[in-house]
Predict the structure.
Amino acid sequence: MRAAIVFPGQGTQQPGMGLPWRDHPAWSVVERAEALLGEPLAPLLLDAPTAALASTRAAQLAVLCTSLVTWEALRNRIEPVGFAGHSLGQVTALIASGTLSFDDGLRFASRRAACTQAAADAHPGRMAALLGATLDQAQEACAAAPDACWVANDNAPGQVVLAGTPKGLDVALARAKVVGVPRATMLNVGGAFHTPLMRDAVDELRACLSVVELVTPRAPVVSNDDGAAYADAEGWRARSADHVAVPVRWRLVQSTLTGLGTDTFLEVGHGSMLATLAKRTVPEVNVHGVATPEAVEGIA
């Protein structure tokens, strides 16, 4: 098996998603994270209601910690071909690959969540998925709202996400219907992430990353921005800061991973969103969800 490790992002959070790990040795990751940030995180993974996971910071920390617990149990059982993560998952990938230390990565993820939420509060926005749309149709829809709506995620054939100001998104969605997009659905998120409306966060994140040590990754990490595989460390200072304000090109990320010789994606963490996208984009690749201790034991 030539496996790539892929990590999910915000939107995959769910009450109780950490329960399978509560009595596993890998749960020490959560305890370490709590000590580092000085706050209780276990409730977010165990018994927090859906409403408690609604904020950007709570959702992102819950998803990150769940993925890192799972990776802790898996990491010595496999030598990956490459790493990638969807949106927030790219931070997880940098920690898992060794590019960011656990401590620096967790602090960065916490700061990233706070900065993007502050940008969202200052520049309110919304996001919507266009289902059954081509990228050309999505771009044509955005052209109806220049400087107010953008393609935020190119996830897979038939799934493109738009984000923009409330008015800009309304205009773009109206245009999407005219150009033949079958369906659009609003996303329950707190801002127009991965668009220029997040630019306020970039400078602060660059400053945050300027003082951390970065290490050559265990295997290449594929960037959400340009879909390229990077085996360097230093370039991730700029890539990780800029990441919040540029689109997630997940369709391209998946193709790059297969170009590295990957025959299997291991989706490490809660949910199956990335498996669904992979089936649409690279159906020749096997996808295994790794979300429980039993699933880890099944990886040879």
